[in-house]
Prior knowledge:
By secondary structure, this protein is of the alpha+beta class.
Amino acid sequence: MNRFGRNTHFILLSVLFTLALSTTAFSQTSRERNAKKSRAAAAQSDKAARVFSQIMATREKSIPHDLLDRAEAVAVFPGVIKAGFIVGGRGGSGVISRRVANGWSAPAFFDLAGGSIGLQIGASSTDFILLFMNENAVDSLLGDKFEIGGEGSVAAGPVGRSASASTDVKLNAQILSYSRSRGAFAGLELKGVVIKPDNEDNLQVYGMTARDILTGTNKISMSQMPEGVRIFPETLARYSRRR
């Protein structure tokens, strides 16, 4: 083999070796990113399940079971941060599960955001729970973004055992909203807040968009869900399961 052939052979080997190293590094980075997303998804589901369990455990101030049993979907956004100076805003992430034949769907990941103008200073952390009371409310949620108080009729959800008498007033509401801040849980007429799917996370965890997760016939069964995210639909099933 002449010098030109040896040089060409050496260059080809070098290129192949570099490509192999790059492919290995890319695969390792992808695995690390997937593992990180899976851990974050499990943590988000765990926080949402814990918030819901804590609220339902306070019977005198919990969500009435008759309302929960009528809900088509439940959203929990734990630890939403509100902060501002004159102009303020709030933002956070959460999960939404829809009722299915044998319980609740895999939790889809969503973001919540909103702004406000007025005399305000400081920051606070609030847990939000939303009950979507019919299929129209759920369908509206699955667009690119959904503004509460815009497309959907929203009302402050009643709490506690004595709420039945006031429930009739809420029958026309598509969404019932609740909040917990500094330990106090109550209905809240939440308006001007936008909820949109976090499909980067949904695709990373499930390989599906929020719409695919929450609609259609190919919903993810409990056994097909990543183990870490099952805690949210399992928690909902402890408090409400249609027969």
